[in-house]
Amino acid sequence: MRIHFIYILFVTLSIGNYTYSQNNDKELVRIRNLSENKQYGKSIFLCDSLLKVNPDNYSLNLLLAANYLWSKEFSKGDSTLDSMLKKYHNNIELYEFKLRSALWQSKYSYCLDLCDSLNDKNIKSRNLSLIKCRALYFIDKERYNSNLKAHFEIYPTDTSVIKLYNIYLHKNILNSFGLEFNNSYANKRYEQYIHSVNMSYLHRFKNSSHELKLYSSDIVYEDENIGEKDIGLKFGLDNYLNLSAKFYLNIRYDYSSDIIFPKHFVISELYTKLFKSHELSLGYRAMYFDNNDEDELIHTYTSSVVKYYKNSRFEFRALVFNNDSNLSSSFWLKYRSYFRKTTDYIGLDIAYGYSPNYNIGYFSDYLQFDANSYYFILSYSKTLKNRFVFVVQPSYTSEEYARSKYKNMFSLNLKISYLLY
Predict the structure, then answer these.
(1) pLDDT tens by residue, 251-290
(2) Which pLDDT belongs to residue 370?
(3) Least packed by Cβ within 10 Å: which of 47, 95, 249, 387?
(4) What CA–CA distance (Å, rounded) separates 106 from 113?
(5) b/e string for 162-197 if b means 16 or more Cβ within 10 A?
(6) What's the confidence (pLDDT) of residue 272?
(7) Helix (H, G, I), strand (E, B) or coil at 21
(8) Are 374 and 403 in contact (CB under 8 A)?
(9) 196 shares a domain with 150
């Protein structure tokens, strides 16, 4: 953000009403480069040197004030701006820097008072309106929401406003309804088709979210010796609970009386937010299968590490689970690149191990835990009119169905969600 301010400042300097000699132009370029490299002390020294020759130079004084603010010498920066405002009354650019300084010092009440005072004088601009919104966010959420909406209506193409408005909308999603379709095809070990239609309803409270899910699936086997179809329903409740500013808990329970699903599926996982945009989790999962003559309980222990970098999210997850008294493992790598909203992204998932997709997902057959798999999935999510979210996920699995013999499985998952604010 600070680099953007530097860019805006120097564009302003380049188109201002003040003419510089060629030497001064070179010095301004030099100061700009120093500021971009955060060498504010050298920038301030050069500004002071040039101002001794031309103390009333508007651009140099503004540049001096900006470097004071960027170096967190707020008192000197504010003093320089105040001196300039005595000469350049009602200068919007100076007031914008004055308000940014107050924001950086968390003087939110002062920001609001100054914005209201400028508005009474009919001094208005896009930046002044946006700064007021930012200050209101920390003081009065209701006024922040109404001002942000009003600002968005006046400046609908402003990328800064769009970003804030989308964050506001995402935080105020109270309900969402989802409808999901999945179609999978496997080409060996008899042809196998899996069809799923799933529905969900999510509600957010202040410190938690709860999602009800209904899964409906069928498996069709098409082979000359096998002509059968298994159908199943499953009910689930997925909960996220904020325990504190750094910890939150995921608890999930699914139940099904049909053979193609686990009868009981439980997840309990604790997440903690670490330094430098990292996140760590430790969890336990259990799947209980009731398959006529055989019952099977599979215990899974999992841990994940998440890294957020700019608009990207990286996650590595490891799972260890029992299989006939032996331990097996799966590894999962996820990548998401977000656009203006958290519901707009592209992603890639890669997994390897004993049926990693079955182990993580909601659909499973306990016999599949003998199968080694490679799993790849692409994701694309897009929000339309701030109400509808469309997700497309094609995937490919190379799954071991006998020792060193693999079958290919291709899947396409489509999901539509409707958001309520």
Answers:
(1) 999 998 887 788 899 999 999 988 778 899 999 988 887 7
(2) 55
(3) 387
(4) 14
(5) eebbbebbeeebeebebebebebebeeebebebebe
(6) 93
(7) coil
(8) no
(9) no
148 and 239 share one domain: no
With contact defined as beta carbons under 8 Å apart, do 133 and 115 qualify?
A: no
Q: What is the pLDDT of residue 385?
A: 79
Work out how many domains the chain is built from and give that number: 2
Q: Which domain holds residue 297?
A: 173-420
Beta pairing class for 264-273 and 227-242: unpaired
In sequence order, which residues have a C-beta less than 8 Å from that of residue 146 and are 6 or more positions away? Answer: none
Residue written as token pair 């750094």: 246
* DSSP type of residue 166: H
Q: Are residues 234 and 375 in the same domain?
A: yes
Last residue of a domain, one of 120, 148, 170: 170
User: pLDDT at position 20, please?
Assistant: 43
Q: What pLDDT, on the 0 to 100 scale, is given for residue 30?
A: 80
Tell me: do 226 and 134 sit in the same domain.
no
388 and 262 inside one domain: yes
Question: Rounded CA gap, 148 and 240, in Å?
Answer: 28
pLDDT at 255: 93
CA distances from 261 to 232, 285, 291, 299, 387 (A): 7, 15, 10, 16, 32
Phi, psi of 45 (to 5 degrees): -60, -45
Query: Which pLDDT value is given to residue 43?
Result: 83
Asked if 271 and 248 count as a contact pair (C-beta separation under 8 A), the reply is yes
Domain shared by 148 and 235, yes or no: no
Give the model's pLDDT for residue 127.
79
3-state secondary structure of 46: helix
Query: How many Cα atoms are found within 13 Å in the side-chain-facing hemisphere of 154?
Result: 13
Domain-ending residue, one of 119, 153, 170? 170
pLDDT digits (tens, 9 = 90+) for 38-92: 888 888 888 888 888 888 888 888 888 888 888 888 888 888 888 888 888 888 8
Helical spans, DSSP H, in 88-181 = 92-104, 108-120, 126-139, 141-154, 159-171
What token pair was written down for 332? Answer: 């999962």
Mind giving me the DSSP string for 233-254? Answer: EEEEEEEEEE-SSSEEEEEEEE
Q: Do 56 and 195 belong to one domain?
A: no
- Coil, helix or strand at residue 51: helix
Which residues in the chain show pLDDT less than 50? 1, 7, 10-11, 13-21, 224-226, 356-369
pLDDT at 178: 92
Q: Are 237 and 212 in contact (CB under 8 A)?
A: yes
